[in-house]
Amino acid sequence: GAEVVFSVDCTKLKDYFSPEEKQFDCIYFNFPHCGRKAGVVKNRELLAHFFRSSAEVLAEEGEVHVALCNGQGGTPADQPRREWHNSWQIVAVAAGAGFILSDVHPFNAETIHGYKCTGYRSQDKAFCVEGALNHIFTRSTPLLCFSPRSCRIQLENQKVSFQVPQVLVDKINRGFLEPNSNHPVRTVKEELAAGLSQAFPVQDTDSCLPLLHQGHLEGVCPSSIFWITLSPEETPSPEEMSPGPANGPVLFSCADFCQGTEKNVPEGRHSPKQFYLRPSLLPHAQAIMQEGAFFPGTLRVLSGPVFRKCRVTPHSMPVFHEVLIVFAVSRGTESSCVQMLVNNITSTIHSLQQTGTKPNINLQEATSSETTELSDFAAFESQLGKIQYFVCMEADPPGSCEKGSCLGVIRTSQELVSSELVVVFASLNLDLLAMLLCGISDWRMLWTPDTRFLRQFPRGELRLFRSFSLYPPSYVHDVSFWVPEGEHFDEVAFHTLARGVSGETVVSIQLRDTFQQAGTGRRSLCYRLTFQSCDRALSCRGAAELQLRLREQIQQQLGVTLR
Model-level pTM? Predict the structure, then answer.
C-alpha cells in the first residue's frame, strides 16, 4: 500500500511532492553524504539545502529525522565530541531553515527491518555506524516581531494607553496568574498559598493592583526603572482630564531617564507627568498598612508581575512574578515567626519538588557587604529598604548565598501599624521557584509562545520540564564605540537595548577592552555579545542581522560613535 518514488533530489522535494497535495509527517534521511571524500563544508551545504527543501513539504507538526555517524553532528550528544569547526554543525544548519533539535538518540540499525547501510566512498560497502545518532528536528516558532505595541489600562478614573518598552513587548499582559492559566508560575503561587493557609489565616489580594506608579520611588536608582512619560503634546487640560465618555484615551510614550533627569523637553513647556512600570509590590503592601485595612495575625498575599531594568546575566530578569507575603506580629517575636514562615515555605517546596534532590532553603542574615555579591534581584530589593534576611537555596560552600541562589528577601517595619506590632514583608520570586521545581534552566523558557511548553503542565500539575530545543547554537559578535567625551555611559541602558533589539537572544555581554585616546581623551569601549535562543531557531545569518540592527540602535539611542 505504499508509494515508492525513485531518483528524488532531496534538495528539491517540492518538485516531486506538491505541498498543496501532500505534506509529510516524517522525513527520514539516514547518513547523508555528498559522496567520496567530500569535506564538512560541502556536507553542511547539502544539509542546509535538504532542510530548506523539507520545510516546504513537511506538516506543521511534522518531524525530520537525520542519522549521522558518531561525531559528525557536533553536539554534546556525540561522544567523543568533535571540535565545532570540524563537524557538520547540524543544529546551526537546521536553524537556517527554521528547525530546532527536539530529540536525539542512538541509531539502531537492527531495529529497522530490512535496513542495510551501504555507500562507503560511494561503493556498495558498509560503513561504521557504531555510536551513530538519530537527530529529530521540529519546526520552530518564528523569532519575535519588533513592531511597537501599545498597552491600554485603567488609571484612576480614566483608560489610558502607553507604548510598551521594546524589551517587554512579548511579556506584558500575558496573564500567567489569571484563574484560567495553567502556567507553572500560577501553580507554584497557588501551592504556596495553600501551604501557608495550613499554618496561618490567609487573605489573597490579586486584583486591582495598578501597573503604573507616578512620581519617584525613593531610594531606587532611576536608571533601573522603566519610565512611561506623558508627552507634552498630549498633555490634556484639566477639563479633558475629567472622567467622561467623550474623552479619548491619553497616550503615553516611553522615555528613558538617566540619573532621574528627563531627556530633552522642549523649552517653554512644563515637564510631563512621570509614570513608571511597577518594579515591586512593596508600595502596594505599605499602602494597605497605612490605610488600616489589615488584621494582625492574618497573612496578606499579593502577587503580580514587576518590571526592572537589569544587566544580561543568567539569573537577571527584566520582568518576573513576585509574591509578597505581609503579616504583623508582636514585637520581639518577629525572628521566630519569620523562621516559622520559611519552614512552611520550605516544606511546601519540598512537597512539590520534581527532581530527586531536595533543595535546602534557609535564611541568611543580610549585611551591607553582601548585597553587591548577590543577584540583581536581591541588589534591587536592597534599594527598597533595609533587608533583614535573604531566602536562599543552600549553595556551595554551605552557608553562602551566591548569585542565582537568592529566591527572596524578608524585611520588617515597626512604623506602619502600632508600637506593639512589627510588620513582616516576605518577597519571593515566583519565576525562580518555578524554575527550581520544574528543572527549567533558562528563565526565558517561562515566556516562550511555543505551545509545547504549556502542554507539559496540565492544569494544577508541576512536572519535570523536558526541553524541546536541545543544544541551541550560539554566535559571538563584538562591538566597539566611542563614548561622548565627559559623559557617563549607562551600561544598564545598553544591556536593556540589547535585550529589546535581539528579542532576548543576547545571553551574555562582556566588556572586553577599554581604550583612552591620547591627546583627545576620548574613551572607547569594546563589548563581546553572545547570541543564543532557548526556544527558537536562530541561524548564523539571523544573529548577524540582529547584531547589525543593534549597532544601528546603539548609535541612535545611546549617542555613541561606532568604530
Answer: 0.86
